[in-house]
């Protein structure tokens, strides 16, 4: 495995601004993006729920072919690259993207000595304001103090933005200390957690949820967890917002 060189992107909607109401889907897809069953299921969710923005973790892409993404613009921020594939987090949308930034963790995970990655994108919502979206897959298999340091690095990177913000992904918050650090992170950024009526479908380890959507400067309209029929070991979480 090699350290990735750069993001892969396709921006096709640079003249389109963010809609007043929009729906996001957050999902750790467990490297299944090249499987036809995953592609068909994702397409059905997009159609059924009119999903505007996809925040995916553990995406696998062939270096030889394009992604099947239902005509979304996208940015794939990699944490692993091999001779044939690239892996990472992907943010897909049908609106303009003003800027993007990828943050590789400074620490590596023990099992495979790989980094994790966070993708930060900026989307215009008015002449003077932007929506910041943070799509992250938090580092795992390191000391709690290292987890905290990596989360703090993300906070310091986005803290200067004063407008609307969404932070979502797989936070790997499988122990109480990691949950505490996440609460501090969201408090410092004035973020509110999206709650779900039936959180029994959310991915949990030791009763702790791993996947979250947090927001500020937006009105939450609806939220739900989708039972993905074990396509991935995580279920998609969905939220609809109003600017």
Q: Would you kindly provide a written description of the structure presented here, covering whatever features stand out?
A:
With 243 residues, the protein is an alpha+beta fold. It has a single domain, classed as Deoxyribonuclease I, Chain A. 17% of the residues lie in helices and 38% in strands. The chain is built from 3 helices and 15 strands. It has a 7-stranded mixed β-sheet with strand order 1-4-5-3-2-15-14, with no helix packed on it. Helix 2 runs parallel beside helix 3. The termini are far apart.
CATH-wise, what's the superfamily? Answer: Endonuclease/exonuclease/phosphatase
CATH hierarchy: architecture: 4-Layer Sandwich
Question: What is the element string, with H for helices and E for strands?
Answer: EEHEEEEEEHEHEEEEEE
The domain tally reads: 1
**Count of discrete alpha- or pi-helical segments spanning 4 or more residues:** 3
Distance between the termini: 41 Å
SSE-based structural type: alpha+beta
Shape: globular
């Amino acid at each position: 495995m090699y350290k990735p060189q750069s993001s892969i992107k396709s921006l096709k909607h640079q003249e389109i601004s963010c809609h007043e109401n929009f729906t996001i889907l957050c999902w750790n897809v467990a490297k299944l993006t090249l499987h036809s069953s995953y592609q068909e299921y994702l397409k059905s969710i997009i159609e059924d729920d009119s999903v505007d923005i996809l925040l995916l973790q553990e995406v696998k892409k062939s270096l030889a072919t394009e992604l099947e993404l239902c005509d979304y613009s996208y940015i794939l921020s990699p944490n692993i690259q091999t001779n044939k594939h690239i892996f990472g987090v992907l943010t897909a949308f049908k609106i303009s993207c003003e800027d993007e930034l990828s943050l590789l963790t400074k620490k590596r995970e023990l099992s495979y000595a790989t980094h994790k990655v966070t993708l930060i994108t900026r989307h215009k919502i008015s002449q003077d304001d932007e929506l910041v979206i943070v799509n992250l897959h938090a580092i795992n298999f390191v000391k709690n103090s290292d987890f905290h340091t990596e989360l703090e690095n993300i906070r310091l990177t986005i803290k200067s933005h004063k407008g609307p913000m969404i932070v979502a992904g797989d936070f790997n918050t499988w122990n109480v200390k990691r949950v505490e650090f996440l609460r501090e992170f969201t408090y410092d950024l004035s973020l509110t957690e999206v709650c779900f009526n039936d959180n029994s479908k959310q991915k949990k380890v030791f009763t702790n949820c791993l996947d979250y959507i947090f927001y500020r400067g937006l009105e939450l309209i609806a939220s739900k967890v989708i039972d993905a029929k074990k396509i991935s070991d995580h279920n998609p979480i969905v939220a609809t917002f109003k600017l």
